[in-house]
């Protein structure tokens, strides 16, 4: 299996009401996560992106896959 890397632009904002960081993957509609610290938000958005891509591939959308 060949490994490959993809980059996605992520916007981080601080939510003072929640007292945490919100992360949104710009090119993946609805792919949003959060974390109490920036490190936690980064880890969580990476996991959210991985899950998003997995679901897209399972539904036959190969836009983000090697199969494209």
Automatic annotation (TrEMBL):
Residues 17-54 form the HicB-like antitoxin of toxin-antitoxin system domain. InterPro entries: HicB-like, TA_system_antitoxin, TTHA1013/TTHA0281-like. Coiled coil: none annotated. PANTHER family: ANTITOXIN HICB (PTHR34504), UPF0150 PROTEIN SSL0259 (PTHR34504:SF2). This is HicB-like antitoxin of toxin-antitoxin system domain-containing protein.
């Amino acid at each position: 299996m060949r490994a490959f890397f993809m980059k996605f632009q992520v916007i981080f904002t601080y939510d003072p009401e929640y007292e945490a960081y919100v992360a949104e993957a710009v090119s993946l509609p609805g792919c949003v996560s959060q974390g109490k610290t920036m490190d936690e938000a980064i880890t969580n958005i990476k996991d959210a992106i991985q899950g998003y891509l997995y679901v897209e591939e399972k539904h036959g959308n190969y836009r983000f896959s090697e199969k494209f």
